[in-house]
Specification:
Largest sheet of chain A: 10 strands, mixed
Number of domains of chain A: 2
CATH architecture of the largest domain in chain A: Alpha-Beta Barrel
Helix content of chain B: 10-25%
CATH class of the largest domain in chain B: Alpha Beta
Shape of chain A: globular
Shape of chain B: globular
Strand content of chain B: 25-35%
Strand order of the largest sheet of chain B: 4-3-6-1-2-5
CATH superfamily of the largest domain in chain B: Nucleotide-binding domain of ferredoxin-NADP reductase (FNR) module
Helix content of chain A: 25-40%
Number of strands of chain A: 14
Largest interface: A-B, 41 and 35 residues
Radius of gyration of chain B: 18 Å
Strand content of chain A: 15-25%
Number of domains of chain B: 2
Structural class of chain A: alpha/beta
Oligomer: heterodimer
Order of helices and strands of chain B: HEEEEEHEEHEHEEHEHE
Distance between the termini of chain B: 29 Å
Largest sheet of chain B: 6 strands, antiparallel
CATH superfamily of the largest domain in chain A: Aldolase class I
Number of strands of chain B: 12
CATH topology of the largest domain in chain B: Rossmann fold
Structural class of chain B: alpha/beta
Radius of gyration of chain A: 21 Å
Strand order of the largest sheet of chain A: 3-4-5-6-9-10-11-12-13-14
């Protein structure tokens, strides 16, 4: 039987583990400190534990941290890390340094089952769920960990399709006993799975981003099958029922597709849909993926679209394209590794 | 401390108690449960199902017709699943928590290809039982010869408009191979048709790519994935 990782466990869970092994209760706090504050890589590193305790842990558990297996570095400084998972699959994390911040884009699942037309991760289908430890490992095992200012859950997978692990990972990242990050430095992005989204809003202080991409139901269901189950109009109705306060942010991700969602009619409908909701729209250039009929809107059209939204008093930003020379769009690197692995299997 | 328990998840999808009228084991590990019905629905819609507040609700397509007195759900047992093994162990008279029907993967009168893998055939059966099978072709993919759930009924209703693609066995009337291969082998596709896709993410994404590469417009492709 494979050994259980301790990284990813809460202090309460660590307490149960030490009690089950007849260790003193304070050992759980020591382990927690080593895992989340001192970033111990091995049990031997946990120098204030007795030798007997370290041996017992060694025999029954693993620490659970995993180094990246590959990195691609863009000319603009963006780095894409490939991490192996416990079930021998691969996930990606993209490190994006900017002048005043450094953001890490983390994955929440191996593959994805949402099947969005524009997404490379969707091409590999759903492989497995990540544990909370595997999500936070992308942060802890990042060579640039000390420079990190922000984390976005916008890598592989739909975070709210793995709600339990995502919530637990947020707890580790934001708790005083964990990495003690401000929730205002973390954004979780969803395509709008309403039941899980409600739970997230009620139980987390982190920012929320919604993949919108078109305000029209019939268009969105062609791009994103989830629209058949949780229509964007209902998602927004739900958002209106919550008080997000002044500090917490709702943003809408909007990839610009040429001739599909970049017309004045879309601006008008967006303004109607979002009317009265304190939010911002983040426009994103589309970077084509294999076998897609979609193209990115022209720069001119993107600018016109942005100006039109601003005129409607909708706060609108245009996300800078980063890491294009290393295909930083999530899913490409891991899909290549998956194909390589499948070829090796046969 | 943040509540990471999934019990709250259930509370976010309102559920009502329903009596289980019958359960049929239609193939190895595959079941149809029949529940008392309280709400109208449109063929192609789903319901959220659970057994108690410790198990997250899962969404299942309705497989019964809109005019039937019961609400039927097709499901297979997921070995690591929290819910499906427990559902399979239920008996007549037990209670099941069920949401109101919802969803927009709806059939209509237009000529269409209905494409499904495994239990993804469920919404099409609902459409067929609701009288929407005219001008429809059903292409169903499965691994074994017994993977074509409701096949006796489908043969009667659809005749040669029912194509079964079996990847791991051969048999009379079966295309031997994956349904994606069958679609690839078609020299031309009816480009004026609508294409409905229901099943795993892998199947939906692959079929969608094939259809687009064969000239089907994006506007004509409708997908439902097992979320």
């Amino acid at each position: 039987m494979s050994k259980q990782p301790l990284f990813g466990k809460t202090p309460d869970e660590l307490l149960k583990i030490v009690q089950a092994h007849d260790l003193p209760a304070y050992t759980s706090k020591q382990i927690s400190q080593w895992l989340y504050k001192n970033h111990a890589q091995t049990f031997a590193d946990m120098s204030n534990l007795s030798k007997k305790t370290r041996l017992l842990l060694e025999e029954n558990f693993i620490v659970g941290l995993t180094s990246f297996s590959k990195v691609q570095i863009s000319s603009d400084g963006t780095k894409k890390y490939l991490f192996p998972t416990t079930d021998n699959r691969f996930i990606e994390a993209a490190y994006i340094p900017e002048d005043d911040r450094a953001t890490l884009c983390v994955s929440s699942q191996v593959g994805c089952k949402m099947g969005c037309l524009f997404c490379m991760t969707g091409k590999q289908g759903f492989q497995s769920q990540l544990t909370a430890g595997e999500i936070v490992n992308q942060v802890i095992s990042l060579p640039e960990r000390e420079q990190l200012t922000n984390i976005v859950y916008m890598g592989m997978g739909e975070p709210f399709d793995n709600l339990e692990s995502v919530m637990r990972s947020l707890e580790i990242l934001t708790s005083d006993w964990g990495l003690a990050m401000s929730p205002r430095r973390i954004t979780v992005s969803t395509i709008g799975m309403i039941p899980a989204m409600k739970l997230f809003i009620e139980n987390s202080e982190c920012h929320l981003a919604i993949s919108l991409h078109t305000p029209f139901h019939d268009e969105r269901r062609k791009l994103m099958p989830i629209e058949n189950i949780y229509p964007i109009a209902e998602v927004i109705d739900v958002l209106r029922t919550f008080d997000f306060g002044r500090q917490r942010r709702i943003s809408f991700e909007y990839i610009m597709f040429k001739g599909i969602n970049d017309t004045p009619v879309h601006v008008k409908e967006l303004a109607r849909l979002l009317n009265g909701l304190r939010c911002r729209i983040n426009l994103i250039r589309f970077h084509p993926i294999p076998d897609t009929p979609l193209e990115s809107s022209t720069e001119e059209n993107i600018d016109m679209f942005r100006q039109a939204l601003l005129k409607k008093d909708i706060r609108t930003t245009l996300r800078a394209s980063r890491g294009q020379d290393i295909f930083a769009a999530c899913g490409l690197l891991s899909t290549k590794e998956l194909v390589k692995q499948q070829e090796a299997d046969f | 401390m943040m509540d990471t328990g999934l019990s709250g998840f259930i509370k976010k999808l309102p559920l009502e108690k329903r009596v289980l009228l019958a359960i049929d084991n239609i193939a190895e590990g595959v079941y149809v449960i029949h529940l008392e019905r309280k709400h109208d629905f449109l063929p192609g819609q789903v319901v959220g199902i659970s057994l108690d507040h410790s198990i997250p609700a899962r969404l299942y397509s309705i497989c019964s017709g809109k005019d039937e007195s019961k609400l039927s759900i097709l499901f297979n047992i997921k070995p690591d699943g929290l819910l499906s093994p427990q559902l399979a162990a239920l008996g007549r008279g037990d209670s099941v928590l069920v949401s109101r029907p919802f969803g927009a993967f709806l059939g209509d009168e237009q000529p269409s290809w209905w494409i499904a893998s495994g239990t993804g055939v469920a919404p099409y059966r609902s459409m067929i039982r609701s009288g929407m099978d005219k001008n429809k072709v059903l292409i169903h993919g499965g691994r074994m010869a017994n993977s074509f759930y409701f096949q006796d009924e489908m043969k009667v209703r659809l005749g040669d408009r029912y194509i079964r693609c079996c990847s791991q066995e051969t048999g009379e009337g079966l295309y031997h191979g994956r349904l994606t291969n069958w679609i690839r082998e078609q020299e031309t596709l009816p480009l004026a048709n609508q294409y409905f896709l229901c099943g795993s993410a892998e199947m939906v994404v692959e079929v969608r790519d094939i259809l687009i590469s064969k000239g089907v417009e994006l506007d004509q492709i409708m997908s439902e994935i097992y979320f």
